Every structure is written in structure tokens, then in C-alpha cells.
Amino acid sequence: MRFPVLSLPAATAALVLSACGGGSSPASPSPSNNTPVTITIRGENGAQSFSPNPASAGGQLVVFRNTDAVIHRVRLNEGTLDTGDIAPGATSRTLMMPANGTNYHCSLHTTMVGSVSPSAGGAPPPCQGLYC
Asked: How confident is the model over 85-106, as pLDDT tens digits?
């Protein structure tokens, strides 16, 4: 029985092409966007203290950037997340916002209020309590 003899370049090409064939293995997932949404702290001005407000960031990573001249500390109204003190010119640690949206305030200046819209879109949840 005779076997066909392939030259080295032809054998290499056949091997490479067979490796690139339409196999059934899934494609590699593309990396998710882990860039946080930035909410800017502008200063003591009620609902205008944060920008954007409301932020379309439900279920997303968020950082707060303090562009004011004084320290601020952002906290979710229900108390589950707290940025710690954010010095003038500084940015908070990265926080994951609840997918269903939320309301927040500056715990040092309680008239500074903001909200995050749900990941599904629509309006933020109704604000209830002291920080509305």
C-alpha cells in the first residue's frame, strides 16, 4: 500500500487549516465593560448636588468624583453602601449599585441628594424617609 508523500510546507498548511476549521467549540466571550460610571459631586445644592442625577447606573459599577472644595461622604439611603470620606479632587472607591435603582445622600451634608435609575430603565425608586 502506498501513502501519498506531502512536502513539509504542504503538511504544515494542511495542519494549520484543519485546526482553523469550523469546530463546534464556543467562541471566547468578549470581556465585559468594567468601566465604572462617574457621578460628579458638585457641592451643596439639593438634587443638583450630583451629576448626572438621576444616574442611569442600576446594576453597574459607580465612582463618585468630588469636584467641590469640601469633603463629602456618599451613602445609600438604606445604609448598605458608604463611600467613606471623599476629599476635594478625589474619587471614591468603586461601588456596585443595586440593579433596581436606589437613592443616596451626602451623610455630611444631608440636603445633598441623588438617585440611580434601575438597570431595566425607567425612573428611580421613590425616595422615602429623611433624605428626600
From this structure: 999 999 999 999 999 999 999 9
Domains of the chain: 37-116 (2.60.40.420)
Q: Other C-beta atoms within 10 Å of 3: how many?
A: 5
Shortest CA distance to 128 belongs to which of 113, 106, 118?
113
C-beta of residue 52 within 8 angstroms of C-beta of residue 39: yes
Question: Strand runs (DSSP E) across 9-119, as ranges?
Answer: 37-41, 50-51, 61-66, 74-76, 95-96, 102-106, 113-116
* Grid cell digits, residue 132: 428626600
pTM more than 0.85:
no
Chain mean position to CA 101: 13
Least confident piece of the model among 21-30, 31-40, 122-131: 21-30
Amino acid letter, 71: I
